[in-house]
Amino acid sequence: MLTIASEIEVLARFGRALADPIRCRILLALRETPAHPADLADLLGISRTRLSNHLACLRDCGLVVAVPLGRRTRYELADPRLGHALTALSTAVIAVADDADRACAQVAGEDSCR
Q1: Tell me, what CATH number does 36's domain have?
Q2: Residue 45 belongs to domain spanning
Q3: Is residue 86 a part of any domain in this protein?
Q4: 88 half-sphere exposure, CB direction, 13 A CA radius
Q5: What is the pLDDT tens value at each position of the chain, 114 positions in all?
Q6: From CA 113, how far away is CA 99, in angstroms rounded?
Q7: How many domains does the chain have?
């Protein structure tokens, strides 16, 4: 059964999805058009196994849905408004200090903010 997530939960799920550059690339690709996993893997230059793990995360976050088409499955954004949100986020002007990348990486324990 589908439930409607609270605003905070939606933002947290969006944040989790956007925390990984590969998931960002998947979402941006799906913003343009729905796609089959094999096509996405080729487009992004990653293995199908790795792509499958990221698609599972995006499904768990509620941002993408799998649409069965015969023997194949196509992935698309769960809501067309997510494409508009991705565009707005990717074109937003953010204010960061010169050393923000280094500080962010230290807090996260990795290069997740780059």
Answers
A1: 1.10.10.10
A2: 4-108
A3: yes
A4: 5
A5: 556 678 888 888 889 999 999 999 999 999 999 999 999 999 999 999 999 999 999 999 999 999 999 999 999 999 999 999 999 988 887 777 766 555 555 544 544 444
A6: 12
A7: 1
